[in-house]
């Protein structure tokens, strides 16, 4: 009798426990205790089934072999080089980040929601670090309609593309004429065309110096000088030997290879050492070895005898 009673009590207790568990939402298929439609938290997320696409698009980022989930953090941003597009911004896994022409950067605003966001998942703003060498100040965030924070770069909301299945893919480039791979500063990635060669400067021309005003420069943009110890008539140079190494003579220049300078007394001086030197208003002219870049005027006033030359051939800034 006692054995039968004990078994009955045990069965009743098991039934009560089963009912209690079911009432707490622990039945098979529920989300978590207390809710029949709750969402898993932390690491308890539901495993993605083979072939599922977290971005709602066939064959893309978020599928097995791609990134882990639609909300994957970008982590340490990187920059890849594309032959067609130049510098392209990517996430830590090497997947391309995109921007949408229908968004705005000032103020930041996203216009990709619903089905658009399935094909173009927003990049979360948290857990992001700027690419090496990039300005961290360009990173920001925008609040989406669902309350989540989306990464912005240069004000532009950032996305991935569902059909990019491997790092380095650029399948989203120019989709619909409105989606573009992002450059490191958030602008559209674009390989810059080779710079057009700079127009050749005349043999002698005029440059406006911030301190000296208009001065004559040679074809390299180097300042031209006169030596007070020279003479114009008879034409004579007092700079020889080591002096000429420090103050190289300006080679002869054709009159048609000048711009903005006086051509009176614009003749070639045949130096006794055999060097041919250009003169302006009959004064021999030189450059200075201490000037290393175009626009330098390090020779100005040296020794109280060397001065830059005005377009009229006069000494610039010399004492009266």
Helix and strand topology:
Elements: H1 2-23, E1 75-76, E2 78-82, E3 86-90, E4 98-100, E5 104-105, E6 108-109, H2 115-119, E7 128-129, E8 139-143, E9 149-153, E10 156-157, E11 179-181, E12 204-209, E13 213-218, E14 225-227, E15 231-232, E16 235-236, H3 242-246, E17 268-270, E18 276-280, E19 283-284, E20 306-308
Parallel strand pairs: 1-7
Antiparallel strand pairs: 2-3, 4-11, 5-6, 8-9, 9-10, 12-13, 14-20, 15-16, 17-18, 18-19
Proportion of residues in helical segments:
10-25%
Number of helical elements: 3
Q: What integer value in Å does the Rg equal?
A: 38 Å
Which segments are poorly predicted (pLDDT under 50) over 5 or more consecutive residues?
1-69
Distance between the termini: 134 Å
Helix and strand element order: HEEEEEEHEEEEEEEEEEHEEEE
Largest sheet: 3 strands, antiparallel
Describe this structure in words.
The protein is α+β, with helices and mostly antiparallel strands. It is built from three helices and 20 strands. It has helices spanning 2-23, 115-119, 242-246; strands at residues 75-76, 78-82, 86-90, 98-100, 104-105, 108-109, 128-129, 139-143, 149-153, 156-157, 179-181, 204-209, 213-218, 225-227, 231-232, 235-236, 268-270, 276-280, 283-284, 306-308. The strands form nine sheets. A three-stranded antiparallel β-sheet has the order 8-9-10, with no helix packed on it. Strands 17-18-19 form a three-stranded antiparallel β-sheet, with no helix packed on it. It has a two-stranded parallel ribbon with strand order 1-7. It is rod-shaped. The termini are far apart. The model is unreliable at 1-69 (pLDDT under 50).
